[in-house]
Design brief:
By secondary structure, the chain is mainly alpha-helical. Helices cover 74% and strands 11% of the residues. Keywords: Cell cycle, Cell division, Centromere, Chromosome, Coiled coil, Kinetochore, Mitosis, Nucleus.
């Protein structure tokens, strides 16, 4: 009978029939993989713990610095400083605007002065023909004013002074008007004496 055989022999034959060697090798590989995975997990866990400790120290340092900064910070002083800087900024902006306006004004004056300088340089040292003519006309106008203040009005005819109207007091102290024709045959000295006597 089957039960009459040795159990060890039966087990041995049963094991031989099942062929469990590949399964044993697979279990061995799994155990090795689990061991390697456990070692990697432990290493990763240690690294994470070390990193967490460093981050905790850094966080504590930053919190302490933040707390010290908050304790040393004065909100009133900060607001006052901000207001002071704003005031300074507006003053600088106002000064800059004023300087811009003054610069534009001075630039205009400089351009005008340059134009005048160029005009004077074109006229030359003696002022040019127009300046000479202006000086002559000013001289004539000045003489005419002096003559009028004395009561003598000179009249021109054909571009030359040909007649003078003299208003004097006369011998009896009344106002008299004399018309004197100026001729070239008499000298300037003669007419000067004549006019003084008539005045």
């Amino acid at each position: 009978m089957l039960l009459d055989e040795d159990p060890a022999t039966l087990i041995h034959h049963t094991i031989g029939n099942f062929n469990i060697q590949p399964d044993k090798l697979a279990v061995s590989r799994i155990n090795e993989s689990l061991s390697t995975l456990q070692q990697a997990r432990d290493l990763r866990l240690r690294e994470t713990e070390n990193s967490l400790k460093k981050l905790t120290r850094t966080l504590n340092t930053l919190q302490n610095n933040h707390q010290e900064t908050l304790q040393s910070h004065s909100a009133t002083a900060h607001s006052s400083r901000i207001a002071e800087l704003d005031t300074q900024k507006f003053r600088v902006a106002k000064s800059f605007s004023s300087l811009e306006i003054e610069t534009d004004h001075l630039s205009t004056q400089l351009a005008d002065l340059k134009a005048q300088l160029q005009e004077l340089e074109l006229q030359g040292v003696d002022g040019g023909e127009e300046a000479k003519r202006s000086e002559v006309e000013d001289e004539v106008l000045l003489k005419l004013r002096v003559y009028r203040s004395l009561g003598i009005e000179a009249e021109r005819e054909g571009g030359e002074w040909s007649r003078a109207v003299v208003r004097g007091r006369g011998k009896e102290g009344r106002g008299e008007v004399q018309v004197v024709n100026v001729e070239k045959k008499f000298s300037k000295f003669f007419y000067a004496n004549y006019f003084w006597q008539a005045l």
